[in-house]
Amino acid sequence: MRHLLDTESLSRDNAIQILDTAQEMSAVGEREVKKLPALRGRTVVNLFFEDSTRTRISFEAAAKRLSADVINFSAKGSSVSKGESLKDTAQTLEAMSADAVVIRHWASGAPARLATSGWIDAAVINAGDGTHAHPTQALLDAFTMRAHWSQLAGTPSVGGDLAGMRVVIAGDVLHSRVARSNVWLLRTLGAHVTLVAPPTLLPVGVGHWPCEVSYDLDATLDAGVDAIMMLRVQAERMDASFFPSTREYARRWGFDDARLARLDELKLKDTIIMHPGPMNRGLEISSSAADSARSTVLPQVRNGVSVRMAALYLLLSGEMREQATPAPSNAKDNS
């Protein structure tokens, strides 16, 4: 496996391999000297056509902890803002002998285009493309879940999957590449996934995804859940009214204080609350829920560095298990 472009084509073996390697990498962050020489002499380029803070910094920290040289490339203030194409940018990076390109792009399918075009001889990692995929976010979410449930069971997480776990993903599914990537990865790892959203924030074709769909968050919680992932309402991608008001949205689909208390009433003491960030406090999640002992928001950020270290290491060392090349996935914005 040469690139990491999505989770739909990621095999269970490769997913488990990344998660197991991330478990080993997590120990590096606890050392006095947080460095490994694994990628010394390699060059990793962070190629970001969309603004980002968490993802870019996380990839930068991951590469530097592996002793790689890092080049941060932002579209703003670069030749891209003057009209330079993705092809020309890629060929510039090829001339710089980049070993890996971490790309975030506003257009769905851009990382796949870069990986298969022949413009560049480098490993490509998708750091988010349009509303299509965000594989390392899904992997760090799965890593966080696996670590939590392994700790509860008192068993090692290495080699394990998420079989039988009930995961709810709620909110703006329509515009969320995180939701798409999580649905496919969690299915691969054996979890049962339910999407909860207003009908207007569900994509066309969601009935063909490997998950259940509900419009009632309270009923879904009452049925039992091991993890609830709240999605950010992406107002910047909305050019129409997808719900009556923010107050109505928070009441029906936000994880508020009442729903936090409801978990205790249902005796779901081990249920965790997740969010990929950044959060709209008071809209899709209350401050009490975000800051509660159930929240894994900060562990997700911390685990993101370990997972991205694992992905970079496995791809650049050539140790990622080979798998058959999958058929191209549908990368249309609203599919």
Automatic annotation (TrEMBL):
Write out the residues that bind L-aspartate: 82, 177, 232
Which GO terms fall under molecular function for this chain's record? aspartate carbamoyltransferase activity
Q: What is the superkingdom listed in this entry's lineage?
A: Bacteria
- Ranges for domain Aspartate/ornithine carbamoyltransferase carbamoyl-P binding come to 2-146
Q: Under which main EC class is this enzyme filed?
A: transferase
| Signal sequence extent | none
Q: Which InterPro entries match?
A: Asp/Orn_carbamoyltranf_P-bd (IPR006132), Asp/Orn_carbamoylTrfase (IPR006130), Asp/Orn_carbamoylTrfase_sf (IPR036901), Asp_carbamoyltransf (IPR002082), Asp_carbamoyltransf_Asp/Orn-bd (IPR006131)
Recorded catalytic activity of this chain's protein = carbamoyl phosphate + L-aspartate = N-carbamoyl-L-aspartate + phosphate + H(+)
Keywords, ordered alphabetically = Pyrimidine biosynthesis, Transferase
Q: Which Pfam families match?
A: OTCace (PF00185), OTCace_N (PF02729)
The biological pathway it contributes to is: Pyrimidine metabolism; UMP biosynthesis via de novo pathway; (S)-dihydroorotate from bicarbonate: step 2/3
Q: Which PROSITE patterns does this UniProt record tie to the protein?
A: CARBAMOYLTRANSFERASE
Binding of carbamoyl phosphate, residues: 54-55, 104, 134, 137, 277-278
Q: Does the keyword Heme apply?
A: no
Q: Which residues form the Aspartate/ornithine carbamoyltransferase Asp/Orn-binding domain?
A: 164-315
EC numbers: 2.1.3.2
Q: Which family does it belong to?
A: Belongs to the aspartate/ornithine carbamoyltransferase superfamily. ATCase family.
NCBIfam families attached to this UniProt entry: asp_carb_tr, PRK00856.1
Listed under subunit, the entry gives: Heterododecamer (2C3:3R2) of six catalytic PyrB chains organized as two trimers (C3), and six regulatory PyrI chains organized as three dimers (R2).
Function, in words: Catalyzes the condensation of carbamoyl phosphate and aspartate to form carbamoyl aspartate and inorganic phosphate, the committed step in the de novo pyrimidine nucleotide biosynthesis pathway.
Q: What is this protein called?
A: Aspartate carbamoyltransferase
